[in-house]
Structure formats: C-alpha cells, structure tokens
Amino acid sequence: MHSCLVHALPYLADPADYFALVRQAPGAVLLDAGRPQAERGRFDLLSAWPLQTFVPNPNEPAAAFFQHLRKSLDQLGRAEAPANIELPFTGGLIGYLAYDFGRRIEQLPEQARDDLLLPDARFGLYGWALISDHQKRTSQLVFHPQLEAAERTRLIALFSQLAPVAAASFKLLEAFRGDLDAEQYRQAIERIQAYIQAGDCYQVNFAQRFQAPCAGDPWTAYQALRTACPTPFAGFQSLPDGGAILSLSPERYLQVSQGRVETRPIKGTRPRGATPAADAAEAQLLLDSLKDRAENLMIVDLLRNDLGRSCRIGSVRVPELFALESYPNVHHLVSAVTGELAAGKDALDLIAGSFPGGSITGAPKIRAMQIIDELEPTRRTLYCGSLLYLDVRGELDSSIAIRSLLVKDGQISCWGGGGIVADSQWQAEYQESITKVKVLLQTLEQLSGL
C-alpha cells in the first residue's frame, strides 16, 4: 500500500500567510477551521494547481457526474497516511456543490431566475495539500505518491520562504440591498403557512438575497470576514473568472471517516446578548423554545431517513439532541445524527441520497424545495450547497454553505433565511434573515467606508 510523503513546515494557527502564497494560482482553495478564534475545528487544508478540474455538463445527471469523480479518484490511486500521522486528506477532490446541483438528483420546477450563472459544481483533483493540525500544532505538506518529484521540490521551496504578501484592496461600491422588502417577505411567509395548513409540508426554509457591486480581491474580503466571524467550517475557493466563494459556515453537512458517518444539523437561532446576563438569557430562551426544538426534531427525523439510504440497517443513531453552540453573532441549537456506511456504498452515494442538506430545505424535503423555487425570486446557486473534500481513501468532510458569499461578475451576493413553521411570525423571521448575516454585511460595508 502506497503512503503519502510528508514535509514538515512551521506551524501556523491562521492559514492566511500560507494561502497568500498560492492565492493567485489556478484552483486555489482553502478549507479553514477558523483558528485561532474558532475552537471546534481541528484541520485546515489548502491546495492549488489541480491535476484535473470537473464541472458537470448542462444536462448531466448527478449519478453520471459522480461516476466521473469516482473514476478520477481511482486513477489517482489510494494512498495512506504515513504511520503515526493522522491526516484528513491524502490527495483527491476539493470543491463545491451548489444548492442547485439538487436539480440533477430530483425533478424540480424552474421558476426561480438563474441570474448568477454559477456552475452547479466545481471540483479539482489535487495531488498535494498543506494541512495544519491544530490539536498537534503541526503544519505539513502532504504529497500523493503520484505527484512528480519536481513538483514536490517546487512546492517545498515555495512554502519555505514565508515572505509577507502585500494585501490587495477590496471594496463595495454601494451598500448591500436585500431583494425582498418586508411586504414581499410577509406574503411569502403567509403563502408557506397556507401550504402548511393545507398539509403540503411541515416546514420550509425561506431565504432572501443581499447584493452589492464590488471591486478588488475577494481574499481581502474573506480575511476581514474571518476576523469578524470565525467559524469551524469556513472556506475560500477561487473561481476561474476572478470571482470566489467565501464561506463562514458554522454547520457540518456530512463527515465520513473510516466508514462512520456524522451530520450536525443546525435548527434554532438566537442573537447574542449585549451583557453576560442578557447573553445567558438568550441562550436559555433558545434551549427552552418548543418551536425551535420541534423544528430541530423534524430535521433530525428527515436526516435519519436520508442517511438510512446509504447506511447499514440499524446503525443510524442520534447521539446529541438540542445541544447549544455559540458563535460571535448567534447561539445555535445543534443535533448530531450518525451511522455506518453499508457494504457497497461510498461517500458519493451518501451525498446523492441526502443532498441538499435537510436543515436548509424543510420537510418533507422535495415539496419544500418546490416551494422554495416558487417563492424565492432567484436561484440560490452556492447558498445552502456544500464545500467539501473527498480523498482517495473515501474520507469526506463537508459544510453547508450558510453565512456564505459569492463574488462573481463584479457583484457580491449573500443570503440569509430560516425555517418557517405553522406558528412562525413573519416579522421575527424577516428580522432573523437579517440578523444571521448582519455581521458579514456590516464588516464589508465598514471595510469599504460605507
């Protein structure tokens, strides 16, 4: 069995200085644990110069696209971590699935406008990565055995001279504007509640989009956002047209490690309080909220069902229900659902059976997605999709792309929303859609002097 080659580098808790060295390279991508401020994530992972790039053809179904991805991993070949080193990634795929990739899995209407024209998925096949382990406090270059010796030498030289890279500028040309006013939001919520009363669905995740024209380097924007809102499933992915995906996600979608599966849905949000007493009161309100617990439980049930399609019968469990997690701007109610992959199933089967994540669609899922397409004026593209890696051993980790922004064609887009149930109050939901992303929008407006 072939092992990766590993080259130790000085440990950095913040990956920014290392990533700056490849920021302009094709396929530059960073999956970021948000250290040193965010404490839950263990590994950062960055790479560039993919050996191949995969974007689905216009009418290609998910199953066919996933077959291409499997084939690319097979061709690169399995590689293990060296003895005594724990590595999340030993070479393989890194990229994103947009929310609209779900159209390649399920039949959905096409009412929402696709005005951002982001491909439904984009993956690079990478033969190397720079991985920092924040538990062990190590940073190292990891090379798949197929990577050529000359390329290893070049990368070791590149990362060994940590010269500061001058920061480029980024600014918004105007303040962010939402695409729905309060009245339009009210009408959409009332429509969802009419569907719920009619027995069509129990819950629908509804979002609005905020946009502003912008100029400059999105990496500078990402660094400002990361400082303001450190989260354990953050990520930056450059796009070929000078655009980028900027994700400050606190939510795991799916993790597969040695055949064990975990998903951690977030359902239930409260703002942080201004004083310790007010903050503790907000946290307690969330823990005591019957509405939020009911919403969370609905999604846990949906995810148990989704995971059950690819997991061994009897292996799906709920080890955590209604746990409190706190972030710089909000408290969240989080649960965990686990399972074990069934024989003959892999991480891509698991994604195909559960994408997009249930926490950001509603229940039942397909009907909720149809209603989202009817009521949100534009397609979600990246929002509520996933940033992920899948390595040659079958190890997967992925986020749900909430608190995420897309820079494309001189525009920056950001989305905020929440789960709507029978007793939701539209004013509170409208406010929550803004609260969730306020820190992101304000950070970039301040950076731009607006």
Give structural notes:
This protein has 450 residues and is of the alpha+beta class. The chain has a single domain, classed as Anthranilate synthase, CATH 3.60.120.10. The chain is built from 10 helices and 23 strands. The protein has helices spanning 16-20, 62-76, 149-160, 182-197, 218-228, 276-288, 290-308, 347-352, 365-375, 426-447; strands spanning 5-9, 29-32, 43-47, 52-54, 92-97, 121-126, 128-133, 138-143, 170-172, 177-178, 203-216, 233-238, 244-249, 252-257, 260-263, 266-271, 317-326, 330-340, 362-363, 386-391, 396-399, 404-408, 411-420. Strand 12 (233-238) and strand 13 (244-249) form a beta hairpin. The longest helix has 22 residues, at 426-447. The chain is globular, with a radius of gyration of 21 Å. GO terms for molecular function: 4-amino-4-deoxychorismate synthase activity. Residues 182-436 form the Chorismate-utilising enzyme C-terminal domain.
Search tags:
13-stranded antiparallel beta sheet, Anthranilate synthase, 29% helix, globular, 450 residues
Brief overview:
With 450 residues, the protein is of the alpha+beta class. It has helices spanning 16-20, 62-76, 149-160, 182-197, 218-228, 276-288, 290-308, 347-352, 365-375, 426-447, and strands spanning 5-9, 29-32, 43-47, 52-54, 92-97, 121-126, 128-133, 138-143, 170-172, 177-178, 203-216, 233-238, 244-249, 252-257, 260-263, 266-271, 317-326, 330-340, 362-363, 386-391, 396-399, 404-408, 411-420. Helix 5 (218-228) crosses helix 10 (426-447).
